[in-house]
Amino acid sequence: MAIKGVLFDKDGTLIDVTGTWVPAYKQLLAEVFADRSPNEIEAKFMAAGYDPVTGAFRAGSVLAQGTTRDIIGIWWPELDAPGIAQKMKLLDVDYRDLGVKHLKPLMPLRPVLQELHALKLRLGVATNDTAASAVLHMRALDAADLFDIILGADSVARPKPSGDMIHAFADAIGIGASEVAMVGDNPHDMETAHDAGAGLAIGVLSGNSAHDHLAPLADHVIDSISELPALLRKLG
Fold first, then answer.
1. Residue 164 shares a structural domain with residue 212
2. Does the pLDDT value for residue 46 go beyond 70?
3. What is the pTM of this model?
């Protein structure tokens, strides 16, 4: 079946995950845990997936592909439900602007997305960040208007690697899940594609994962989304 829609992961696929989120989380941790020593703060950062040797997030880690709730489970494992709700607000609302402050795209997004539009493809975003944060990021990069829908972990019952976001995207634009190409930089993006029965799972090497992380799960692995229009034209 022909591909009619492309659903993009955000961090590591559309934006520079290291350039954006490493400085953002460093600032957040320094402020939220201001009463802790630098070593304790570094330990929390590392526990969630930061690798001080590479200066990036480890492939498959919570910071690479998890939700806010996953991060809270690492940094504040002792919290009850009200405490978790408070920390969700802290990270998703009170500190939302940090992502925009440090936002760094992987490339100018409009030319690539417009090329996909020229191929008559519908476009969406599916991230384990919040939908509001993703919308802010795409607006800041002058790309929000090119997407039919921008979905976050809070947009569906189950975040990635569940296929819920693919089904939500497909339903929103009136196509089947098998007509969707899922594009992402982490194994769980590929798992999302398989869970939903998507037509294609396309891995990109612009984020946290190496080729060996993605190849066993992906139909195709490309360097970045800049190669996506040519790949989809080749596939027909």
1. yes
2. yes
3. 0.93
Residues 66, 166 within the same domain: no
Q: Which residue has the tokens 């998507």?
A: 198
**Nearest alpha carbon to residue 146 among 133, 132, 156, 135:** 135
Q: If we measure between CA atoms, which residue out of 93, 104, 207, 84 comes closest to residue 152?
A: 93
Instruction: Indicate whether 94 and 142 sit together in one domain.
Output: no
52 & 145 share domain: no
Q: Within this chain, do residues 122 and 83 fall inside the same structural domain, yes or no?
A: no
What one-letter code names the amino acid at 3? I
Count other C-beta atoms under 10 Å from residue 218's C-beta.
24
Share of the chain above pLDDT 70, in %: 100
Amino acid in the structure at residue 2: A
Count of Cβ atoms closer than 10 Å to residue 102 Cβ: 18
Q: Give the start-end residues of each E strand in the chain.
A: 5-8, 50-51, 56-57, 122-126, 149-151, 180-184, 200-204, 220-222
Q: Do 70 and 94 reside in the same domain of the chain?
A: yes
CA distances from 82 to 85, 89, 96 (A): 5, 11, 20
First-to-final CA distance of the chain: 10
Residues 44 and 55: their CA atoms lie apart, in Å, by 15
Those residues whose C-beta lies under 8 Å from the C-beta of residue 196, and which sit 6 or more positions away, are 163, 164, 166, 167, 170, 177, 180, 182
> Residue 123 corresponds to which tokens in the numbers above?
């476009």
What average pLDDT score do residues 89-93 get?
Answer: 94
Examine the domain organization and report whether 144 and 197 are in the same domain: yes
Q: Which residue range(s) make up the domain with 166?
A: 5-16+105-235
